[in-house]
Fold:
Amino acid sequence: MSLPKLGLTTGAGERRAVPVEAVSAQTLQTHVAGEAPLRRWVAAQGFEAREGTWLGCPGPDGGLARVLVGVDEACPPRAFGALARTLPEGVYRLGDGAVAVDAGTAALYWGLGAYRYTAYKEEEAGCRALWMVPDADAGVVRRRLEAVYQVRDLINTPASDLMPGQLAAAARDLAEPFGAMVDEIVGEALAGAGYPMVYAVGQASHHAPRVVRLTWGRSGPLLAVVGKGVCFDSGGLDLKTAQGMRLMKKDMAGAAQALGLARLVMGADLPVRLQVWIPAVENAVAGNALRPGDVLRARDGTTVEIDNTDAEGRLILADCLAAAGEARPDLIVDFATLTGAARVALGTELPALFCSDEALARELAAVADEVDDPVWPLPLHTAYRYLLDSEVAQIKNCSSEPYAGAITAALFLRAFVPEAVPWVHLDFMGWNLRERPGHPKGGEAQGLLGLFAWLERRYA
Structure:
């Protein structure tokens, strides 16, 4: 992916680049005090330097000479995510503002805001590029942006063009430049290969279910990543409403995010052995669809009663979590658009974090906050395990009670992870309902950059 597509440039454009100066509501007046024409212009325009707002300032010839951008001093670079689609066409650079801004982070936000999904609609005309100063690590910024763009593109792709086969192809496309290996088990072979719940969930679709596994690295601790790949979720026989089904092309966001994390890990050449597991299915309705009351036997032998066919994501994750745990990895991470309950608790913009180790959860959340990609720890409250008790099987796939849905879903997954293996579970929306600086509407990577920053420190 080229830097221009990411909204950035490293070419010889500094001289013609318009400086962008960061100011806050508290520093604006001091910043303009020494320049009377600028002070009068700011006052005439009513510019107050609220975060994400900007003011173009003319030069002697009437052309655009500088841009003032309002920032929040708690996270100054974030405001740059609002500029890549709103400034006039041209090349810009980070100028000397009243608030210090890290050049690389400003470029990252600029690129995050430059994204648009254009597979089915022509890209709008015009280009606004941020010139990256030499001391900004263009390679690091580019890798992060490419990972986020990949996640967003996959989530935004409609189910008509992204079913299990295409998701497997995306994994192969990712693997090739890094020398990673991809294998997959497809259709009826899943049951015999130890993925019976993946097969049971996906068998009603004419798009064959599959488990895709990407492996990379020859030495170091083993990092296992699992991503929920429900390419479309009708709810199965427990059918969703029309409104509830409308965004269900995004129910494979966990798989997209797992691939995004793989890109970051391989691109940074982290000293780990990486395994990525993607159970890819369509949860469809047909005569052979999974039924409420059915009992499945999972990969590890656990019997699971189906209370609701719309709680299918945890079933396919369970088989792959069990498979990932068999090698006793150093860490297991899973990503899933798993529960509406997590959205009720935390809203759509804050992923729920569950972790088998409370100290690890606090550490991860702190690092994620540092990079402005927050997650919020929720408890694995084992006292709620009774809500998953079944009269006919060892466990049921969801509670019949309308309480603690995110916690009980996490407790279900926890049952398939080896007790001694550290485990991180991220339950996220995968979709922006509104436009924010650096976060366009549509598919989104949530918690990805924060988690990767934590992994970099863990395996440095």
Observations:
- The mean pLDDT is 95.
- The two ends are 27 Å apart (CA to CA).
